Amino acid sequence: MPVSVPDCIFCKIVKRDAPASIVFEDETTMAFMDIRPMIPGHTLVIPKSHAAYLEDLPKGSSGPILETARKVAAALRRSGLRCEAVNLWLANGRAAGQEVFHVHFHVLPRFHGDGFGMRAGPDYGRMPERAELESTAEKIRHAIVNQ
Ligand code: AMP
Ligand code: ZN
After folding, report:
1. Which of 124, 45, 123 is nearest to 90 (CA)?
2. Does the active-site annotation cover 42?
3. Mean pLDDT across the chain, nearest whole number?
4. Which of 42, 102, 104, 106 is catalytic?
5. What is the domain partition of the chain in residue ranges?
């Protein structure tokens, strides 16, 4: 049985306590239409078990979510919807734009001229020295644990 949180809208969808237009589900994941699509075909892919953030998922359980996103991306290309390409988007934390605190990938059909864009911060474009990249990499390497 998936872990469920009572006031989580996506947990409610998993339990069929809230409506959703489901396109795929398996034992551990589900894909359904975003209620406020950024573009026709905008689909969300979630783990059935509640976790607020990507890093809260139990070790080894993130793979099936990407596998379902892969299936949805392939389906979008075959669906007849306008889809020349696909973006996967994951907002992980409030500062990254997360509004629903149950892990979800957005699977977004894209086509030339669709008007989408991702705006980078003011630091974008600079190419740091290798030493700076190494120093940043060392901080992350040091923080990686086998969890
Ligand atoms: P995020 O900002 O990444 O947390 O995105 C949350 C997404 O969930 C938004 O695109 C919402 O439109 C979508 N959403 C919220 N409630 C529902 C719902 N009941 N069914 C489908 N999508 C939803
Ligand atoms: Zn949930």
Report:
1. 45
2. no
3. 96
4. 104
5. 9-145
Q: For 39-50, write each residue's pLDDT tens digit.
A: 999 999 999 999
Which ligand number lies closest to the CA of residue 5?
Answer: 2
Q: How far is the CA of 82 from the centre of ligand 2 (A)?
A: 30
Fold entry, domain 9-145: HIT family, subunit A (3.30.428)
Long-range contacts of 54-63 (CB under 8 A, 24+ apart): 54/90, 54/92, 54/103, 55/92, 56/103, 57/103, 59/147, 61/28
Distance CA 48, CA 77 (A): 25
Average pLDDT of the segment spanning 136-146: 92
78 token code pair: 């075959």
Angle at the Cα of 83 from the Cα atoms of 82 and 88, rounded to 5 degrees: 135
Residues with CB under 6 A from ligand 1: 9, 18, 20, 34-36, 44, 91, 97-100
Is it the case that residue 118 has pLDDT exceeding 90?
no
Give the residue-averaged pLDDT of 93-112. 98
Give the ligand 1 atom nearest the CA of 101.
4
Q: Which residues pair with 108 in a beta bridge?
A: 87
